[in-house]
């Protein structure tokens, strides 16, 4: 299955200015409205912090994640040498309905309280699988797994499901 290519737009955010003593209420009333995606909470999340050492152990990941950028979206990549790799990507701007996914490869599901899609091309049997979690209508989290050797798609889907189950409770 070709890698899922998402056209994600970057969302710029301005850091909050610290309030000075005695001017807190004036500062609060004078600040601009938060960006439209702030309600999702994803904008403040670090994708590499979504898997704790205990989570990584439960998922069979013995390495630290490496931050990366995928088409303007924040992501974290964990590569377990000789076994598999996992990438978690946060999109502040694209909900499940906005993602371009081939209907024949996607299965609707639910992970915890979040609607989800499992995406795998079983006919290609290429050892890749993704779980896409909807976070509100305008944000999503994508968990991609690729097995070394690009074989055993069902195993890749089990691994993606495990990671999704570990990440999901931390999502807004």
Descriptive account of the structure:
With 172 residues, this protein is an alpha+beta fold. The protein is built from three helices and seven strands. It has a seven-stranded antiparallel beta sheet, covered by helices on one side. Strand 5 (114-119) and strand 6 (128-134) form a beta hairpin. The model is unreliable at 1-40 (pLDDT under 50).
List keywords for this structure.
172 residues, alpha+beta, seven-stranded antiparallel sheet, 28% strand, globular, disordered N terminus
Mean pLDDT: 81
For the report, how would you describe the main beta sheet?
A: 7 strands, antiparallel
Give helix % range.
10-25%
Radius of gyration: 18 Å
Pairing-aware structural class of the strands and helices? alpha+beta
Instruction: Report how far apart the termini are.
Output: 30 Å
Unreliable residue runs? 1-40
Q: Report the portion of residues in β strands.
A: 25-35%
Rough shape? globular
**What is the helix/strand order?**
HHEEEEEEEH
Largest sheet: spatial strand order: 1-2-3-7-6-5-4
Number of helices: 3
How many DSSP-defined strands? 7
């Amino acid at each position: 299955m070709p890698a899922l290519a998402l056209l994600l737009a970057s969302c710029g955010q301005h850091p909050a200015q610290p309030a000075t003593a005695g001017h807190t209420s004036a500062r609060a009333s004078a600040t601009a409205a938060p960006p439209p995606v702030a309600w999702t909470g994803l904008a403040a999340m670090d994708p590499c912090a979504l898997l704790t050492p205990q989570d990584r152990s439960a998922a069979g990941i013995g390495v630290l994640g490496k931050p990366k950028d995928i088409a303007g979206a924040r992501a974290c990549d964990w590569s377990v040498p000789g076994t598999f790799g996992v990438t978690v990507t946060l999109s502040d701007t694209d909900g499940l309905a906005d993602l371009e996914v081939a209907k024949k490869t996607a299965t609707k599901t639910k992970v915890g309280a979040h609607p989800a899609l499992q995406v795998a091309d079983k006919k290609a049997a290429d050892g890749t699988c993704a779980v896409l979690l909807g976070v509100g209508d305008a944000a999503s989290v994508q968990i991609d797994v690729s097995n070394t050797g690009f074989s055993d798609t069902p195993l890749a889907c089990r691994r993606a499901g495990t990671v999704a189950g570990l990440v999901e409770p931390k999502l807004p």
